[in-house]
Design goal:
This protein has 167 residues and is of the alpha+beta class. The chain is 27% helix and 34% strand. A 4-stranded antiparallel sheet has the order 1-2-3-4. The chain has a 4-stranded mixed sheet with strand order 5-6-8-7. A hairpin with a 2-residue loop joins strand 1 and strand 2.
Length: 167
């Protein structure tokens, strides 16, 4: 698999589409590849590569995914709270699960969850089954996760974990 030297990134090819363009002399074929890349420690990115050959499309998708990586707030081996992600007509629901539950997810969502490094989660795809929309909705949902400290900061609460609290 592609880019293994950068922090041991795991690369998963989600889908490969053959695109046909009809021209005067016949048909021209090209390929598009949707690739998800993650380090299994809370970072994930997805990219779409397009080229005349499959390997080139996968390589481009992997490069774009590595550039677009985001950090996810995790709580041990699951997510901190329920979240819904929407992309186009794709809608994905992610729920935290107890230890030992495993990953309950469809094929496309499972690929994204595995490269992030989440071990226990419940998911449901509510909208479109288009792989592009499902993957982008899953990434959007993961972007919207907030840790308890971030929520407390937004609400203006002072947490007791801070050592330099002014009284």
């Amino acid at each position: 698999m592609g880019d293994q030297k950068n922090n041991k990134l795991k690369e998963v090819v989600i889908s490969i589409n053959r695109v046909t363009k009809v021209v005067k002399g016949g048909k021209r074929f090209s390929f598009s590849a949707l690739v998800v890349v993650g380090n299994r420690l809370g970072k994930v990115g997805c990219g779409l590569g397009k080229a005349k050959e499959v390997q080139s499309a996968i390589q481009k998708g992997s490069t774009k995914a590595a550039k677009n990586m985001i950090h996810i707030n995790l709580l041990q081996n699951t997510i901190p709270h329920d979240v819904i992600g929407i992309s186009g007509s794709g809608k994905v629901l992610l729920k935290p699960a107890r230890p030992g539950t495993g990953v309950i997810a469809g094929e496309k969502i499972r690929a994204v969850i595995d490269v992030v490094g989440i071990k226990d989660i419940l998911t449901k795809s509510l909208g479109s089954s288009n792989p592009f929309n499902v993957v982008y909705a899953t990434i959007e949902a993961l972007k919207n996760l907030r840790s308890k400290a971030e929520v407390d900061k937004i609400r203006g609460k002072i947490t007791t974990t801070n050592k330099d609290v002014i009284c």
